[in-house]
Amino acid sequence: MNFKYRLGLDLGTNSIGWFVTETHDDGSFKKFIDGNSRLFHDGREPKTKTSNAVNRREHRGARRMRDRKLQRMQKLLNFLVKKELWTCP
């Protein structure tokens, strides 16, 4: 199967580039169609070079710790009720 066009992609950490060419029947280069690239910010504070996700990660960790503690307490309460060592109000 022969294609008339060829697409080239360059996926980097802070950029995406693409390039389209037209090809001959044997797959060799015929002419350039189009190409471009997009640059992205690296997701860090320019002055301190710390990740923008640090604050979000810390809050998510705190929520997870709270949820795990509540889950452990609920499991313990369910166990005590099941063994009739605790009565629910």
Write the layout of secondary structure elements.
Blueprint: E1 5-11, E2 15-23, E3 29-39, H1 54-82
Antiparallel strand pairs: 1-2, 2-3
Could you describe the 3D structure shown?
- By secondary structure, the protein is of the alpha+beta class.
- It has one domain.
- The protein is about 35% helix and about 30% strand.
- It contains one helix and three strands; from the N terminus they run βββα.
- A hairpin with a 3-residue loop joins strand 1 (about 5-10) and strand 2.
- It is elongated, with a radius of gyration of 29 Å.
What descriptors fit this protein?
89 residues, alpha+beta, three-stranded antiparallel β-sheet, 1 helix, 33% helix
User: Which sequence of SSEs, written as H and E, runs from N to C?
Assistant: EEEH
Helix content estimate? 25-40%
Largest sheet, spatial ordering of strands: 1-2-3
Overall mean confidence score, pLDDT? 90
Summary?
With 89 residues, this protein is an alpha+beta fold.
